[in-house]
Amino acid sequence: MTLVLGIESSCDETAAALVTSDRRILAQAIASQEEEHSPYGGVVPEIAARAHAERLAPLIDKVLKEAGKTLADCDAIAATAGPGLIGGVMVGLVTAKALAMASDKPLMAINHLEGHALSPRLADSDLRFPYALLLVSGGHCQILRVQGVGNYQRIATTIDDALGEAFDKTAKILGLGYPGGPAVEKLAREGDAQAVPLPRPLVHSKEPHFSFAGLKSAVLRAHDCGEHSDADIAASFQQAALDCILDRTRRALSGMDAVSALVCAGGVAANQTIRAGLEGLAAEFDLPFTAPPLPLCTDNAAMIAWAGLERLNAGFAADPLELKARPRWPLDPDAEPARGAGVKA
Ligand code: AMP
Ligand code: MG
Asked: Which InterPro entries does this entry report, sorted A to Z (predicted)?
């Protein structure tokens, strides 16, 4: 049995976890920074970095004590090394380097997106490579063919905003606060999903890429015209987002080599309507559908520890202590840029 300490600090959650190779989360702790960022309606990078610096060490201490372990019991220290808000990533990575150095344990520098991509295998021991992954979070919206540990083929990406960003922006327009995804989902339950005509950007286009900027602007116009209830806007937005996701994922699956399952991960995978829609889509292709349990969908350190375990298991070497934090770090560096996309990876 192998034991890895995982550290996550790429956005607004400070997290530490201890995970074993037989898929047990011995202890985990997450400190959310919702309170610090909510007055600004989004994450302020400088505030985030300072909060990570204050909270991370006590969190690591807490999970070690809770599990009755010391650093000497760990086989490796895994930390997010990117992509993300660079100040926060540096706090987590430097902490991991110091712990690795002090305890003479290997450092595993983890791509945060790889953490999301492999997280379904922490929860589901039957999930085999290759699988199709819809990765939908606050900063990313991609479809990947997960072919093995460290082996990702990007099939689609967003040419503008991430889906979580569109949920958060909709919440802001409707005055629902930050983070917006869960609040939009809750309000949508009281609304009519057909009430507000909203666009479905890129639906039916040949390439399976995503676009949400136009949908976001349409939500703002629908709100400003004053003719619709907030609940109807929330429900209609969620329906439009789901229609985009189903159409784009259907397109991607149609052109993809065989896979064992359709998987959804990342913060937006917590959305029940989106999960249910994807389950139906998977059935069209005779594929099982799986998504991690909700606490493993949003940013957490268990998925980082698990990615470290997967990398150790697959024979990847430890990373050097001089390794740099990376604000951008695509999972598939060979993927062609999507036509019309900005500079986002
Ligand atoms: P992550 O970037 O993986 O931490 O995910 C955070 C993103 O997921 C934010 O943009 C949230 O608004 C979004 N999110 C979280 N829960 C939900 C939900 N239930 N429905 C839609 N979006 C959600
Ligand atoms: Mg994330």
From this structure: ATPase_NBD (IPR043129), Gcp-like_dom (IPR000905), KAE1/TsaD (IPR017861), TsaD (IPR022450)
Residues 237-282 pLDDT 10s: 999 999 999 999 999 999 999 999 999 999 999 999 999 999 999 9
CA 297 to ligand 1 center in whole angstroms: 8
Report if residue 174 sits inside a domain.
yes
| CA 252 and chain centroid, separation | 19
CATH number of the domain enclosing 7? 3.30.420.40
The verdict on 173 and 265 lying in the same domain is yes
The mean of the pLDDT values for the chain is: 95
In this prediction the pTM is 0.94
Structure tokens at 224: 């400003």
Query: Distance from the CA of 194 to the center of ligand 2, in angstroms?
Result: 30
Among 167, 186, 237, 296, residue to substitute to test ligand 1 (most atoms within 8 Å of Cβ): 167
Q: Which pLDDT band holds residue 342 (cuts at 50, 70, 90)?
A: low
3-state secondary structure string across 78-125: EEEEECCCHHHHHHHHHHHHHHHHHHCCCEEEEEHHHHHHHHHHHHCC
Q: What was the pLDDT predicted at 96?
A: 98
